[in-house]
Specification:
By secondary structure, the protein is an alpha+beta fold. The protein has a domain of 76 residues: Arc Repressor Mutant, subunit A (Orthogonal Bundle), CATH 1.10.10. It is built from five helices and five strands, in the order ββαβαβααβα. A hairpin with a 3-residue loop joins strand 1 and strand 2. Helix 3 crosses helix 4. The chain starts with 19 loop residues before the first strand and ends with a helix.
Length: 135
């Protein structure tokens, strides 16, 4: 027969188990972070999509977990989906689903990609490199 363990002040059982591994991070499966969802609602979030936060922190009444706050902290400057996944050590698919939630709440926005026609030509880049070498 299993006996209920006493609860700690935080409401969790005192089972002597650690729920965080310093080297591996939190011991929470990615699908638990996304409530089992595997696809983002916004399909334009590829790995090189650049997102940026629209505010410095999460709203206090947002009802979102700490992983969303971590994403918001990373997104204070324009950053790609791949970079966010790397910083947070989460699978890119999980980050895409979480970012989709933030996009729906307008807490982050996706920046338009750079127009290829606005990039400098190869000749200009070569001239810049030659000029730097001449210094």
């Amino acid at each position: 027969m299993n006996v209920a363990q006493p609860l700690e002040p935080d409401g969790l059982p005192d089972d002597g188990l650690l729920w965080v591994d310093d080297e591996a991070g939190p011991l929470i499966r990615p699908y638990a972070m996304t409530s089992g969802r595997t696809r983002p609602r916004h399909h334009d979030l590829d790995l090189i999509a650049v997102v940026v936060a629209t505010r410095p922190t999460l709203p206090s009444d947002g009802g979102l977990g700490s992983v969303y706050a971590e994403i918001m902290a990373v997104c204070q400057r324009p950053v790609s989906v791949a970079e966010i996944a790397s910083y947070l050590r989460l699978p890119a698919g999980t980050v895409r689903v979480l970012l989709s939630d933030l996009l729906e709440r307008r807490l982050v926005r996706r920046r338009a990609p750079v127009n290829v026609n606005q990039l400098p030509s190869a000749d200009i880049l070569k001239a810049v490199i030659d000029g730097i070498r001449a210094l």
